[in-house]
Amino acid sequence: MPSLRRALALSLVPLALTVAACGDDEESGSSAQTPATTATTAADSCTKDSLETFADGKLTVGTDKPAFPPYFEDDDPTNGKGFESAVAYAVAEKLGFTKDEVAWTTVPFNSSYAPGSKKFDFDINQISVTPQRAKRVDFSTPYFTAPQAVVARADSPAANATSLAELADKKLGVQVGTTSLDAATAQIKPTQQPQVFNDSNDTVRALKTKRVDAIVVDLPTAFYLTAAEIEGGKIVGQFEAPGGDDWGLLLEKGSSLTPCVNQAVEALEQEGKLDELQDQYMGGDAAPELQ
Fold it and tell me: Which terminus of the chain faces fewer neighbouring Cβ atoms within 10 Å, N or C?
């Protein structure tokens, strides 16, 4: 998947709906995989004093610039606002670092998963876990799995739907080769076959010209489209579906921090903190859940 961050920054660059910011740049049709490093470690080896970090006494976190909503707010990762900024600080806290002990550094998206040494401890940048990338870097336990979303024009008959059932009789559009077609068919159960388009431009154009009432894409793509591509567009809602796209924290290949970062992410998941942050920044009014 091409970088959604790049697309949003340039705003005129078309975005393939097959993918989100983080997606697969190497191979098509690959699904999220188990992180490369799954080893566990004793709790006492994950104490702050025992961690080997890029800078002594600091946890260095990478992300790209611009850093945009809902993942970051005000283009400022340091403020703790936005889904990924909040996740990074939550992981840091689990590792024993206070907010003022977290240092942020700019890491271009495409270079983050290049092989070689890293000038950060982990990178958080909507990066999909893929087998090809996992050969060159470590990924943590996933901190987010991107669901599907429904995007409509504000004047569309689908715009005010509050449930999947209310979308069943609407004209839906999807891009060929994406998981969105299967997701829409299985979860929305449309009364008419969704229209399938060859590429992202055709799919978006169909919505703009009212050939369809709504389109089904993954949630990160929906945020991009409503921010930069579809004037007056809105996210009707999001829904869970098979084939979600896993995002992981990215670390240097063989990093001694990987098992400890895994523990931190897993603890946040078990405590419900990841769900809480997802609801706060990527749910609610921005993308209500459709049942």
Answer: C
